[in-house]
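Postdoc handover notes: sequence design on the structure in folder B. Input tokens:
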């Protein structure tokens, strides 16, 4: 499918010269180079709030480079991404990550999802306090008090659809996101959650208005830095 999309985009850019029109000079900018990315990860919410393509604009640069390398190297698998990235160098992936991390685009309005009082209480407990007895840290402890991420490698949780959040948590729980997952990090945390808890968290996060910005890695508790040390150090952070 992605090969078809890229071919179609290439053909559209070449159609004018073929039929005798004035050739269009395309500027050699990163914005033009990543148009294949923005077909799915567009500047606007073109596919609707139920889309499974996440917003990548404004995400921490280290997080983006980790994901790009994971897709390219087969640790995280989604065929269109693997095809798109298979021949790209680390240096070029860093340029792409830097470009998207620097974009400051408007966020969509929060979803309006009805929640029962007990769902809200359950979600806020896990997001703000966690469950130490089950070895579940608070979402905010890793993703920041504003839930907008931690530089350089932990993404924000706001501005995403309920469907995407639930799907990602499900993928972490069943091993469908990463090959050779890092024990003790997101996969192990998600496996402790029940279906009911996943749905409550996804609803609550999708209902929130976006505000704030990513926090520095120094705000992470030492035990959490150690727990997710591989992701942080690979993205350029320090233990």
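Designed sequence:
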């Amino acid at each position: 499918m992605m090969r078809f999309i890229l071919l179609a985009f290439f053909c559209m850019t070449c159609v004018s010269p073929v039929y005798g029109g004035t050739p269009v000079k395309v500027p050699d900018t990163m914005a033009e180079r990543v148009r294949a990315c923005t077909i799915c990860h567009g500047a606007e919410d073109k596919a609707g709030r139920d889309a499974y393509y996440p917003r990548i604009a404004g995400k921490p640069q280290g997080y983006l480079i980790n994901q790009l390398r994971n897709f390219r190297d087969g640790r995280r698998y989604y065929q269109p991404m693997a095809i798109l990235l298979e021949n790209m160098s680390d240096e070029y992936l860093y340029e792409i990550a830097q470009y998207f991390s620097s974009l400051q685009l408007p966020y969509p309005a929060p979803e309006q999802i009805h929640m029962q009082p007990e769902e809200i209480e359950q979600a806020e407990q896990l997001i703000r306090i966690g469950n130490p007895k089950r070895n579940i840290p608070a979402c905010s402890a890793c993703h920041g008090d504003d839930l907008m991420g931690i530089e350089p490698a932990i993404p924000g949780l706001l501005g995403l659809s309920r469907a995407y959040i639930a799907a990602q948590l499900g993928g972490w729980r069943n091993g469908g996101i990463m090959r050779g997952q890092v024990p003790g990090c997101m996969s192990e945390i998600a496996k402790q959650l029940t279906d009911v808890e996943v749905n409550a968290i996804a609803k609550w996060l999708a209902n929130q208005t976006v505000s704030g910005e990513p926090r520095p890695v120094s705000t992470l508790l030492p035990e959490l830095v150690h727990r997710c040390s591989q992701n942080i150090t690979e993205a350029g952070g320090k233990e």
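Context for whoever picks this up: Strands lie at 149-150, 154-155. Don't rerun without checking with the PI first.
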